[in-house]
Amino acid sequence: MDAPIGNDLCSRIRRSEQALMAHHEAVLRTYGLTMTQYTVLLFLSHEGGMSGAQLARSCGVTQQSMSSVLTNMETKELIHRETSPVHAKVQIATLTEQGQTLLDRAYQEVIILERALTDAFTPSEHASLCALLERATTVLIQQTRHAAAPPTT
Q1: Within its chain, how far is the Cα of 3 from the centroid?
Q2: CA 79 to CA 52: how far, in whole Å?
Q3: Residue 100 burial by Cβ neighbours in a 10 Å radius (0-12, 13-18, 19+)
Q4: What is the distance between the alpha carbons of residues 25 and 29, in angstroms, rounded to a whole number?
């Protein structure tokens, strides 16, 4: 087998993703947040109230994991949950003032990396990289769906 190690696109994308996550986790740890908790705060700040299932899908975690995350965040008073007016069994999470304040503080640190990455490229390179990453993401999603599909007989 002549598979290149560390020089193929998947390895490069993975290394970039690992470096990004390591940076964000280090920054967020100083605020007592995990990456999932930070992402929940971001979604609630942008979208308003969301159910645990919606947040789980948005954050790419299971509903069971999200339930634990939301319980922890509610204990820290970062979010508030109340019964949905539409579905009695569904809890809707919203951001508290304390949650918004913590998000604002953490975001000021996280955005430093975004600015550094943007500054590392010319505007044209930045636009090209974004377009290429979008195209790569589309292929990755398509291939994942194909791999997950049951075999045809």
Answers
A1: 31
A2: 12
A3: middle
A4: 6
Q: Provide the pLDDT for residue 146.
A: 80
Q: Which of 62, 30, 56, 24 is nearest to 43 (CA)?
A: 56
Chunk the chain into consecutive blocks of 10 residues (it has 153) and report each block's average pLDDT, rounded to whole numbers. 69 92 94 95 94 93 94 97 88 96 96 95 97 94 83 68
Residue 119, phi then psi, degrees to nearest 5: -70, -20
Distance separating the N- and C-terminal Cα atoms of the chain: 29
Q: How far apart are CA 93 and CA 91, in angstroms?
A: 6
Q: Quick one: which H or E segment has residue 11?
A: helix 9-29
How, if at all, do strands 50-51 and 79-83 pair? unpaired
Sheet holding 91-95, edge to edge: 50-51, 91-95, 79-83
Which of 47, 56, 51 has the alpha carbon at shortest distance from 89? 51
Q: What backbone phi and psi angles, to 5 degrees, belong to 92?
A: -105, 125
